[in-house]
Amino acid sequence: MLAALAPDVALEERPFGAQAIRDTGDSLPPETLAACLASEAVLKAPIGDPEFDAAEVRPEQGMLRLRAALDVYANLRPARSETVDVLIVRELVGGLYFGQSGVREDGTVFDTMEYHPRQVERIARRAFELARGRGRRLTSVDKANVLETSRMWRRVVDEVGAGYGDVGVEHMLVDNAAMQLANAPERFDVLVTENMFGDILSDLAAAVTGGLGLAPSASLSDGGPGIFEPVHGSAPDIAGRGVANPAAMLRSTALMLEHGLARPDEARSLEAAVEAALVAAPTQDLGGSASTSAFGDAVLRELS
């Protein structure tokens, strides 16, 4: 698909995740990390496998390491339907998933949420810029009635927002935001939030606009290569059957063309072709009968 749109883009495949563990014992082998660091963009397929859910070495560990190495702090999760067009901007390299954790001698287990104001400032600025290019409405989601990190988050968002007078800003507690996303997602334009809240809310937004099988993502830094990947898992239960829906991967490729390779025209073309294929050749999860390859063929026809 990428060859049809951008034949001059050089592609290089590297092992990552579950298969890399099987091959090398490491979910992110050094050679793979080096290739990612040297690239313009990383297009990542799903990497998990239930085989490693409780293992000492897990695919997700490699994913966290890669995000930290590339400093892809801004995770963009668009969710669209006929009536909804929401963009969730999730801080990706801080918070609970990257804080101190452990087990105390008395058996207590802990995970720590930490944020520095600089981390909040840069994700807020990215979100304001994105909102300025869309509907000029930004919702900052936190838990400021309980969490100290959220109170700092809210303060910094307001400080950054002072430089974006053309963008309307509201603050919303995460539990209310979840309810609003479920019941009235059309009220939102851009949401910005911390790592764990964004993880949960972005999946909810995907569910109310068609499901994870359609959901792409882009994870961006301030200069290095970004990571572009579908949100859904690897679905080993249907591997090799030709029934998987490739729409999320293709939409992630479109995000890569736009944000990673600076090819917005090709990105728009691919997005439009995927939308047309979803109508002309829906896969089984969407109530149709098209195979994975038949869906791909439908996209190629739209591009030709």
Please provide a written account of the structure.
A hairpin with a 5-residue loop joins β9 (216-220) and β10 (226-230). 42% of the residues lie in helices and 16% in strands. It has helices at residues 2-5, 18-24, 30-37, 59-70, 117-132, 148-161, 174-183, 195-208, 247-260, 264-280, 292-303, and strands spanning 41-43, 74-80, 85-91, 101-103, 109-111, 137-142, 168-173, 190-193, 216-220, 226-230. The termini are close together. The model has no long low-confidence stretch (mean pLDDT 95). The protein contains eleven helices and ten strands. It has a domain at 82-209: Isopropylmalate Dehydrogenase (3-Layer(aba) Sandwich), CATH 3.40.718.10. It is globular, with a radius of gyration of 20 Å. α5 (117-132) packs across α6 (148-161). It has 304 residues and is of the alpha/beta class. The protein has an eight-stranded mixed beta sheet, with helices on both faces. It has a two-stranded antiparallel ribbon with strand order 4-5.
Distance between the termini: 11 Å
Mean pLDDT: 95
Rounded to an integer in angstroms, the radius of gyration calculated over CA atoms is: 20 Å
Number of helices: 11
In the CATH hierarchy, the architecture of the domain at 82-209 is 3-Layer(aba) Sandwich
The helix/strand series, from N terminus to C terminus, equals HHHEHEEEEHEHEHEHEEHHH
Shape: globular
Which structural class matches the secondary elements?
alpha/beta
Main sheet properties: 8 strands, mixed
Q: In which range does the helix fraction lie?
A: 40-55%
Strand order of the largest sheet: 1-10-9-2-3-8-6-7
Number of strands: 10
CATH topology of the domain at 82-209: Isopropylmalate Dehydrogenase
